[in-house]
Amino acid sequence: MRLVLTHIARLLMVEYESRELVAGADMEKMHVRENAWLTIEDGLITGFGEGEVALLMDDEVLDCSGGMVIPAFCDSHTHLVYAGSREKEYEDKIRGLSYEEIAARGGGILNSAALLSSISEQQLFEQSLPRALEIIQSGTGAVEIKSGYGLNTKDEVKMLRVIRRLGEETPLAVRSTFLGAHAFPAAYRPDPDRYVKLVVEDMIPAVASEKLADYIDVFCDRGFFTVEQTRTILEAGAKYGLVPKIHANELDFSGGVQVGVANGARSVDHLEFVAEEEIGVLKKSRTMPTLLPGASLFLGMRYAPARKMIDAGLPVALASDYNPGSSPSGNMELVMSLGIMQLRMLPYEVLNAVTLNGAYAMGLEKTHGSVAVGKTASLIITKPMPSFGFMPYAYGSSQIDRIILNGKIVQDV
Ligand SMILES: [Zn+2]
Questions:
Q1: Of the residues 23, 118, 152, 382, which has the fewest C-beta atoms closer than 10 A?
Q2: CA 231, chain centre distance (Å)
Q3: Cα Rg for the chain, rounded, in angstroms?
Q4: 77 and 63 share a domain?
């Protein structure tokens, strides 16, 4: 049976010829169909056009009542599988406690790891599932989720199994990333290379033997993993077919962009510290620069130079970084608003960044991120809006009316 969407005021992100990504000046451009309809069969988009559609006897019709239709969000960078929460730590920060004092009171990545270690795989799934369901209700259709709160082989595998199960038991398209190199456990601080050895010799083979990850990530930054350590880990991952997607240049000019690109990274993420050299390296690559403005907002830190990057001809993806320490929100409408408010991106640039470019950043650009015949029917129907720019402009108030994932209407939006 067909599902037919009618009375769509504007159908956005339309593609007649598929593209991998959108870069530079093209990010401001958009193919739009006015007063449109769209048909869905077997979970896929099968047609769309303007004006009236010829309905068949057994069509199921969904009247969009003058709302707009955009692809569901593609959130290419999250850590939404975790144990507990860290709002107390944020209070401590407000009170002016130092990082060390906060860590002593139970904050930081290492404490997330201790908490995660203390619960079972089933309990971790039960804690993480509501967050996956929450992002579905917020319009996300495809998501990348990282490990990295295990920091030992057993708990990293536990996290990745939970990530796989979220993909099996929810309508989300899930890509998983092994991030054993997220932080150094305290016991390895005197000899960090010993931890790199554990990641390379024990964790990566264990993760690969269960085929638990699509990507491999390293936190390559000042005070975390060095360029040399990052290279060692990425090269070890490559032997098992794990493609890099790395944390780079959040805290400093870390060399993360260069080592990521040199190792064929699908994306380099954060990029608060980016100058001409990094832009030049990215321009010669197929790596998606991915920005995480939610983390800058929550931590009160600098924003990535998105305007400069797009004006230089680069593509940009935006993602939520949903995690308990630096961005406890998976709300992509808010990410879009930060795109216009803090990154000085234009509304259509933001829409390209949270859909097709996000899909590319997790290798899903052939199936997700735009409105094209044959692509997965994962779509957002908005409330009636005066223009698309109203969606990011009206920050804090959702413009989502209905959500369709894999051709099925999501209930209870
Ligand atoms: Zn992150």
A1: 118
A2: 23
A3: 21
A4: no
* Centre of ligand 1 from the C-alpha of residue 352, in Å: 21
CA of 249 from ligand 1 middle (Å) equals 12
229 contact partners, CB below 8 Å, separation of at least 6? 181, 192, 193, 196, 218
Q: Is residue 99 part of a domain?
A: yes
Amino acid identity of residue 42, one-letter, is D
Q: Is 24 part of a structural domain of the chain?
A: yes
3-state secondary structure of 400: strand
On whether the CB atoms of residues 136 and 410 are closer than 8 A, the answer is yes
CATH code (residue 315): 3.20.20.140
Say if residue 413's pLDDT is above 70: no
Contact 134, 103 (CB under 8 A): no
> From the CA of 291, how far away is ligand 1's center (Å)?
10
Domain total of the chain: 2
pTM: 0.97
17 and 142 both lie in a single domain? no
Q: Which two tokens stand for residue 298?
A: 């929550």
- The DSSP annotation for 99-165 comes to HHHHHHHT-SHHHHHHHHHTS-HHHHHHHHHHHHHHHHHTTEEEEEEE--S--SHHHHHHHHHHHHH
Q: Give the separation between CA 229 and CA 89, rounded to whole angstroms.
A: 29
Residues 6+ apart with CB under 8 A from 75: 135, 140, 142, 143, 144, 319, 320, 322, 330, 332, 354, 358
Tens of pLDDT, residue by residue over 267-307, are 999 999 999 999 999 999 999 999 999 999 999 999 999 99
Contact 249, 275 (CB under 8 A): no
Residues 6-38 have pLDDT tens digits of: 999 999 999 998 899 999 999 999 999 999 999
Q: Residue 63 sits in which domain range?
A: 3-71+371-410
Pairing of strands 317-318, 379-382: unpaired
Q: Do 231 and 263 touch, CB atoms closer than 8 A?
A: yes
Cα(57) to ligand 1 centroid in Å equals 49
Q: Round to whole Å and give the CA distance between 303 and 318.
A: 12
Q: Does 366 fall in a domain? A: no
Residues 6+ apart with CB under 8 A from 57: none
Q: How far is the CA of 44 from the centre of ligand 1 (A)?
A: 31
Instruction: State in Å: Cα 60 to ligand 1 middle.
Output: 41
For residue 385, the domain's CATH number is 2.30.40.10
